[in-house]
Design a protein that fits this description.
With about 290 residues, the protein is of the alpha+beta class. The chain folds into 3 domains: about 60 residues, no CATH class; about 110 residues, 2-Layer Sandwich (Tetrahydropterin Synthase, Chain A), CATH 3.30.479.30; about 45 residues, no CATH class. The chain contains 8 helices and 9 strands. The strands form 3 sheets. Strands 6, 7, 8 and 9 form a 4-stranded antiparallel β-sheet that branches.
């Protein structure tokens, strides 16, 4: 008879042990609740126990979670509207505070609250700078400021905002065409300025080149005249010296040169007296005495 009572007792005891034991995964944190109140926080993996039928378990993800925000329009200092969306990474660091903040909503409620916090910080931070700074590649300081502000406000939720990244910063569709037109006008103006400066520089180079040509040509002509004058002077000196040595031969050679120059053309005609001195060396066998 005693065995009849022992076996059910063992089964009941085993059921109680099984219902009180639970395993905590390394990727999660567990809250032990008793009548809705937090009795224990278990953040280390392994086997743990609770009071069966009285205590309940709430499991929360202990990994880094992602949160893509919805696109929203912001207005920077220069009143150029921008469409911005971001991606945040966050993690539950205080499960007791997290439970008190979100209640039964869990991670879904936390995501909604974080989305509102991050969107508010995006509007505030980006609304205090020009759009050019938002659109530039170097906007790390802006993202860090959004992260720090969101982290301070999200601390009451028991979560830590690890990072916030702006994934898109675009102009609204209706503003794109006017912005592109303005950009084209600015680029065309810059191109016209560059062309004007290029033409001015080319004109200046041409003027300097023309002046250099005139100076070089003038210097060359001057040097040529000097050389020509020196050559003529040397030639005259040679002629004078030759004339002084043999005046008769000098007169003969000059007459031959005159004949050559006068009789070159095929239709040359000359009218002069037969006894002209021009024919002295043509009409006599002996050169006349000087």
């Amino acid at each position: 008879m005693r065995a009849v009572y022992i076996l059910p007792g063992l089964i009941l005891a085993g059921a109680l042990v099984l219902s009180s034991a639970f395993i905590v995964d390394e990727r999660e944190k567990v809250l032990v609740l008793q009548f809705g109140e937090v009795k224990q926080v278990i953040d280390k993996p392994g086997l743990s126990f609770k009071i069966p039928f009285i205590q309940d378990l709430l499991r929360y993800d202990d990994r880094i979670l992602g949160l893509p925000t919805q696109p929203l329009e912001v207005t920077p200092l220069d009143d150029r509207r921008l469409v911005v969306d971001a991606f945040a990474r966050w993690r539950i660091v205080d499960v007791a505070a997290f439970r008190r903040a979100v209640g039964a909503g869990g991670e879904a409620s936390a995501r909604d609250n974080l989305d509102k916090i991050i969107n508010a910080e995006i509007r505030e931070v980006l609304g205090g700078v020009p759009s050019q700074k938002v659109l530039s590649e170097d906007r790390t300081a802006l993202m860090n400021k959004i992260r720090d502000n969101a982290r301070a406000k999200a601390a009451s939720l028991g979560v830590d905002v690890i990072d916030v990244r702006l994934t898109r910063t675009d102009l609204p569709e209706q503003n794109l065409e006017s912005t592109f037109a303005r950009m084209r006008a600015e680029r065309e103006r810059e191109a016209a300025d560059e062309i004007g400066r290029g033409k001015e520089a080319a004109q200046r180079v041409r003027a300097e080149a023309d002046r250099s040509v005139v100076e070089v040509v003038s210097q060359a002509r001057k040097e040529a005249e000097i050389v020509r004058g020196e050559a003529d002077a040397k030639s005259n000196a040679i002629y004078a010296e030759a004339y002084g040595k043999d005046p008769e031969f000098f007169a003969f050679t000059r007459s031959l040169t005159s004949y050559e120059r006068a009789l070159q053309g095929s239709n040359s005609s000359m009218v002069m007296q037969p006894d002209s001195e021009f024919f002295d060396y043509l009409g006599s066998e002996k050169p006349p005495a000087p």
